[in-house]
Amino acid sequence: MASVWISGQRGAERRAWSSIAGGLACFLIGCVVAAAAADVRRDLAYGADANQRMDVYLPAEPRHAPVIVMVHGGAWMIGDKANAGVVEPKATHWTKAGYVFVSLDYRLWPKAGPLEQANDVADALAYVEKHAASWGADSSKVVLMGHSAGAHLVALLSSSPSMATARGATRWLGTVSLDSGAIDVPGIMNSPHAGFYDRVFGNDPARWREASPIDRLGRDALPILLVCSSRRLESCPHNRAYAAKAQGLGVRASVLPEPLSHGDINATLGQPGGYTDAVDAFLRSLDLP
Question: At residue 180, what are phi and psi to the nearest 5 degrees?
């Protein structure tokens, strides 16, 4: 889901759907990349639905390992936990550093809207915390990470952690949002936008606010790193507005602009370089290795 804030809804929808079509092609033909983790536990069920599954990538010798929980993108409508760019090079980078890396699926629209999808992520988080010790991981050292639609979901939970704690999860250490598809949902809906936003978020302004990270942001929010693509017109401004509001509430929030496409924000994370170094620095600031 890229370049959706461009002038004119028709042009926005055409360009956004072009990006989605590429993701859908990958989804249909199985564009997956095997991770180099020492051990992978696949398709662990955290719920009854077929999409409520996760893959757990373990380091060679997990011992009180921190955990990254990754939530894929796909405009809330498509995507898979094993799609190219979702797992690699992230899993290799962080399992080599001693992390457990979890990639999860969730119910997709129209079966579930963004709020129900956020509940799925919360349920998956609770499952991870419950089973972490059996993987050699530490349930008190969990970070949420997501890209695009997935970044919206983790940012929403980070803004209002009670959404997760009400479903049995405990507070996690922090959140990494990778070029969120919707930090300010009313701001998107009241501007020219791609048509799939109408399908996913509907036409009720009250529901927009309920699903909007910046509108749900409270003093109990989690520390967050907001990565944004400087190539997308509104991405960094929306993320900076979120960070400013968070800081005004006494919540740790920082913005990391990157001169990368929406897709490359996801696909290159974990490769050697300044971008991965900056995300690692945020993790270390949470007292992680």
Answer: -55, 140
